[in-house]
Amino acid sequence: MNDKKFKYNPFVTEVMTAREVHLTEPDTEGEYADGKYKTEATACKEYTERLKAEIQAVADTHFARKKNVHLPWWKTKEGVIAFKFKSPRKQPKLTDAKGRLLNAGTVIRGGTQLRIAGVIAAWEKGEKRGVSLFPDAVRVIKLSEDFDPCAAFGPPEDGFDGSARARNDDGTRSRQAPRDP
């Protein structure tokens, strides 16, 4: 896309809840993978309405008499509005709540509370036009913890110890313990 077809308006969100997160690694797997850094995010009803109005104002300013303008939100199957933030070329700068860069290896998951700064971009390419949310920086307010389904079992118990199982010559685990010759 030619950058001359873009018109930018800066934005900073209030705290939102991330979902379908690809901010630490680009989206490269699955049917809709596009190799871009992106996330969806939801917010409280009041802020959702204000952000929709801000985006709609940009669309109305640049495409007042145009039809079929793509907007970066939709209603989820849960009935809430989700916004799509997608970086066209680069990974957004990722920081903690204090503004310090995140440590390498920190993974932002769905459920993380965050704020996003970037630009609302009005774009037009041929007959297509729309408004996109390009994230430049993400501030993690509360990192969603990794879910451990085995935590429900509690502390270790007496019984079978899988680490004591025999290994084959190639290092793989055998199905049966080796027999004495």
TrEMBL record:
Q: Which SUPFAM superfamilies match?
A: Nucleic acid-binding proteins
Q: What Gene Ontology terms describe where this protein resides (cellular component)?
A: DNA-directed RNA polymerase complex
Q: Which domain of life is it from?
A: Bacteria
* Comp. bias regions, Basic and acidic residues: 164-181
Which Gene3D superfamilies does this entry report, sorted A to Z? Nucleic acid-binding proteins (2.40.50.140)
Q: Provide this UniProt record's keywords sorted from A to Z.
A: DNA-directed RNA polymerase, Transcription
The record's region (Disordered) falls at 152-181
This chain belongs to the protein called DNA-directed RNA polymerase
| Native source species | Rhodopseudomonas pseudopalustris
